[in-house]
Design goal:
single chain, mainly beta, 10-stranded mixed sheet, two-stranded parallel sheet, 1 helix, 12 strands
Length: 159
């Protein structure tokens, strides 16, 4: 199943009215890619959020740069084949200290009570436990991180 994010992503509310407490790991939905309940690690040390993607291939479409990629789901669940407009590229220092240039895509993210348009870098996070990393730019929308708790917004069976 292929999901495409078009250049004109609907603008949603950008901040919470009241702070929302979250744990150090939560479930996140990426409705634009058709993906729900991805395990995400909250990382206040990372500026930008990151998504585990494989088979990342840039291509041109109508004079604009897009990227095709796969979101591997594992455990017998079909992978998601997606494409998105390239928002840009960023040099990121990975967890092992190596600098990488990554594609940045703009997509809708849903965490608890808030759904917003934000940026994610695409990276192979196969060696990581969590397929999504939620960075500071997403967290500044009104989330308070309680590092002693997890799954404060619910788990698979509760959502």
């Amino acid at each position: 199943m292929a999901h495409t994010i078009t250049p004109k992503v609907k603008r949603l509310r950008t901040k919470l009215k009241e702070p929302c407490e979250i744990g150090w790991c939560e479930l996140i939905d990426l409705p634009g890619f058709g993906v729900k309940n991805l395990h995400a690690k909250v990382d206040t040390g990372a500026a930008t959020s990151s998504l585990h993607a494989t088979r990342i291939k840039p291509f041109d479409k109508n004079g604009q740069q897009f990227v095709k990629f796969t979101i591997p789901m594992g455990s017998g669940v079909p992978d998601y084949h997606c494409e998105a407009l390239v928002y840009g590229q960023r040099r990121i220092k990975s967890s092992n200290g190596v600098m990488q240039t990554r594609y940045v895509v703009e997509t809708v993210m849903k965490l608890g009570p808030l759904e917003w348009v934000g940026h994610m870098t695409l990276a192979n996070r196969q060696s990581m436990i969590f397929p999504v990393l939620i960075g500071r730019r997403a967290l500044k929308r009104g989330f308070l991180v309680n590092s002693a708790r997890r799954w404060m917004l619910g788990r698979h069976e509760e959502r």
